[in-house]
Amino acid sequence: MESLFTFLVNASAGISLFYIVYWIFLRNETFYNANRWFLFMALISAVLLPLFPLKYQVIIEPENDAAVLKTISDTFKHIPVVSGTEYESQGFNWQQGVLLVYLTGASIFLLRLLTQTFILIHLIIKYRIKSLDGIRIVENEKYGLPFSFFNVVFINPKFHKQENLPEILAHEKVHIRENHWFDLLFIELLTVIFWFNPFIWFFERSMKQNHEYLADKGVISMGHSVARYQALLLNQLMGMQIIGITNNLNFALNTNRLKMMTKTKTSALGRVKLLWALPAVALLLFAFAEPDYKVLSAQKVLSAQNDENPKTMVDFSGQKEITVRGIVLDEKGDPLPGTSVVIKGGTRGTVCDMDGTFKLDVPENASIVLSFVGKKTVVDSYEEITSGNQKGDTFSRKYTMKDAIEMISNSSYDGDFKTSYEGELLPPPPPPPPPPTKEAVPANGKTPPPSRVMPGDEEVFYIIEVMPHFPGGYYARQDYILKMQQKIAQAEGIKGKAKVFFTVNAKGKVTDIKIVEKDNDGAAKGAVMLVSGMPDWTPGKQRGKAVPVKYLLPVVFK
Known about the structure:
558 residues; 3 domains; 19% strand; CarboxyPept-like_regulatory; membrane; transmembrane; TonB_C; energy transducer activity
């Protein structure tokens, strides 16, 4: 809905700007064909520029912020589940009201267009098409004024004498030969879409008026008397416009139209005024341009940092090394297979095997960093490493990884809430640890499984080959979060922070919603509403198969 509103507003701004350019610089000039093309191309540009905006690239370095949306392990499986459907909004908001008004107006004008077309088709069927001087005509008794519709001319024999027909047919012949019907059909369709914008109606009038200028010019160029032709037009002065999608002989019949027939032709230099369209196009391109965010890979960031500050990356080449054999356990003493172990400031690392053990060669005076999703990162300095049990050049170490998140279980709520949310823009996800080199492998040479699965449980992954994909990507997800956050905060008066845990299942649906941390019940409810309103994701994949993946999302209501 918001995308539709944005398009309508942007396109309406373009229509208004182009018409102002036409009205100020071009409406009184005699290069009618050039004006016709200006009016037509201006409308096309106003519609297409918002649909295909220019992109400008914005380079973003990945942040090392642990507070971003991230996957977590199966630890939170038994937290009570909160159903998001309890809090889905059932109210009628202002956006729905505006949409209803817009669709009602568009339906009325579409019905008007279809009715007018049906009437003319009915007249063609009723009175049949005849040929006169090579022109297809329909002699009808419904309308007094002559007009053309596509390649058919409608005439009422009761109101037009035989001696007036040559000028009338010559006039309508120009409309048919130059396919003015196409312009009219195009502008009529746009009036259905942009009926609320007064400038689209100004465009329609100017386009029809320019058609009449072209037809008048064509009649005079055929050798017809200007005075006689003007007298014929004046006789039609009291007539009324027939129908929107037709070219009418008396349309815009005023002193200005009569003057334009004899006005001195605009010089070729005067066509330079058409170039005023370029600043309008440039302004719209600038106004509609959208950022194309590009996140630098971890390798490029580290390389750039190394160039600017050599101390960021450490050159360990040529240094004496020691071997570290370690085991990584959780707080319960269970092994943590898949724990990443990397050298701080370097690019070498490994992962723990199925028993939680690892082996890594560490340069002298270097530290190692141990990280596991959902656990606090551990940094072990060279001094601490060398203080452990030693056997030759090999040191044995034991590490316990503590939970990074304190869980709560009181996450059942009552009440009726509207769906929304707002907060500060979350930074891009942190870069993954550097991949282990060929020489850095688990102690037993085996790759650990992604997670352990209890009998009867569905295998849920937290480190997989292809992560789930929010519709539109990372920044579309952030945009959704920001907009929803603001709506919840405003609609419900919610303030505070919460962390919500959920699973994107193998079908891409958000399930298993749980609150793991909250400032207050309002923040917890808002977080549930935010996640439950998410559209379906593209599911994550492991070895080419769609699998469920768990996420933790911190939210802030202001």
